[in-house]
Amino acid sequence: MVPLKDVNLLAPISKPDKIVAIARNYTGHCEEQHLPPPTEPMFFSKFSSCIIGPYENIVLPEISKRVDWEVELAVVIGKKAKSIRPDQVESYIFGYTIAQDISARDWQKERNGGQFLLGKSMDTFCPIGPSVVTREKIIDVNNLNIKTILNGDVKQNGNTSEMIFKIDFMVSYLSQIFTLHPGDIILTGTPAGVGVHRNPPLFLKVGDVLESEIECIGKMCNKVV
């Protein structure tokens, strides 16, 4: 057995056909924004070029001063899915991993006409890992503790039970719109505790250490440079 300290773990998936993410899908995240829970899901995308490994560095772009964190449970599609029902979804899921939906809030909210894409897709803005845990290893995906720890302080501490739109709904919904392919990644939302909604707001800076943890899946640790 090779010790973890002697290897460089790469992202478990590097070039998915799609990365699809959902906004405001945790009750606590809606509450911290003083917004009601959505009645219809809001999806956006991230470019696959922003994927990095579970221990690689997050690089702060010069063009943003408001870079934030969002820990998320990520669904990895296992086989081609088109127009499937919610009760069929489980067999189309390969497994689950951890993702950080790193976000340049100024570009997400104030630039690019309010479209999320550029603020979400800057280089290194999607750490994933440390591995993909196959679906049969997760007893209850709707009851997993999920955390972000920044420099040793817990900033997000939620549970996937807070999801407004559940995974079977999300995968089925998306499959009605476009075909999901093996390796596609769906980010399922983030709990309360992101930096932009703190008082005062808190954003990532050079030297920060960002840990992302989900029960039954593991932990990532990314330094900010």
TrEMBL record:
Span of domain Fumarylacetoacetase-like C-terminal: 18-225
What is stated as this protein's family in its record?
Answer: Belongs to the FAH family.
Q: Which Gene3D superfamilies match?
A: Fumarylacetoacetase-like, C-terminal domain
Pfam families, alphabetically?
FAA_hydrolase (PF01557)
Instruction: Give GO terms for biological process.
Output: oxaloacetate metabolic process
Name of the protein this chain belongs to: Fumarylacetoacetase-like C-terminal domain-containing protein
Question: Which InterPro entries does the UniProt entry name for this protein?
Answer: FAH, Fumarylacetoacetase-like_C, Fumarylacetoacetase_C_sf
UniProt keyword list:
Metal-binding
Is this entry keyworded GTP-binding? no
Give the species.
Answer: Pyrocoelia pectoralis
GO-annotated molecular function: metal ion binding; oxaloacetate tautomerase activity
